[in-house]
Design goal:
Elements lengths: L3 H24 L4 H22 L6 H4 L2 H15 L1 H4 L3 H25 L4 H22 L13 H16 L4 H22 L12
Helix pairs in contact: 1-2, 1-4, 1-6, 2-4, 2-6, 2-7, 6-7, 6-8, 6-9, 7-8, 8-9
Length: 206
């Protein structure tokens, strides 16, 4: 049985990721349906992909009504208050960073619970963290963050790996979650603040 603390952390990650998706939809001037679709896709995309890959079927998004209600509520909240927050790119990125940090932990721990080893579980944590953001960016017509030179997937992988190792050491869930999510979040926010970027390919010489 999945611990209640895990479900709370997972739903919180869905909520903040859905907020970032809703904000992106408002920034693109989509209608209410578009906001709800983008919020839902962002909040649920990574977890859905993870569950399919580790054979946790049906995916939590389809088996538990709370996983559908939370992103819809986030979308409605963003749409209702969008005149104040709709066009702030920095706010989208901050919510996205929090969602990334929470999801890399829950994704890795769920993969561990399904019998995956440390490295595969960490990779599943990274997939959970980046999946929703990729789907959001593709649906909104922009280059996904992980392909634009930003340090995004690497902090997620590092946070997921730390969470897996702390969990295997038998530490309490709170310590595991704080250690993994804290590393990912601090790395991602620092990279945004300091404008760190991954190496980019230059123009081809032809």
């Amino acid at each position: 049985m999945v611990p209640a603390s895990f479900i709370v952390l997972d739903l919180l990650g869905i909520f903040v990721f859905a907020i970032s998706g809703g904000l992106m939809a408002v920034r693109k001037q989509l209608d209410l349906f578009g906001v709800l679709v983008l919020a839902g896709a962002t909040g649920l995309g990574g977890g859905f992909l993870r569950d399919v890959l580790i054979d946790a079927t049906p995916p939590a998004a389809l088996a538990d009504w709370r996983y559908l209600l939370v992103p819809m509520a986030a979308g409605v909240l963003v749409f209702a208050f969008h005149p104040a927050i709709g066009r702030q790119e920095r706010l989208i990125n901050v919510f996205d960073a929090f969602g990334l940090a929470l999801f890399c932990v829950t994704g890795a721990l769920k993969a561990t619970a399904y019998g995956l080893g440390p490295l595969p579980a960490a990779l599943m944590g990274m997939v959970t963290g980046i999946g929703g953001g990729i789907l959001r960016d593709v649906l909104s017509g922009r280059v996904p963050t992980i392909f634009a030179g930003e340090l995004y997937a690497t902090p997620a992988l590092a946070g997921a790996l730390v969470a897996v190792l702390l969990d295997r050491a038998g530490l309490p869930f709170g310590v595991v979650a704080l250690g993994g999510a804290g590393l990912c979040l601090s790395w991602r926010l620092l990279a945004m603040w300091r404008r760190w970027s991954a190496p980019m390919s230059g123009p081809a010489n032809v």
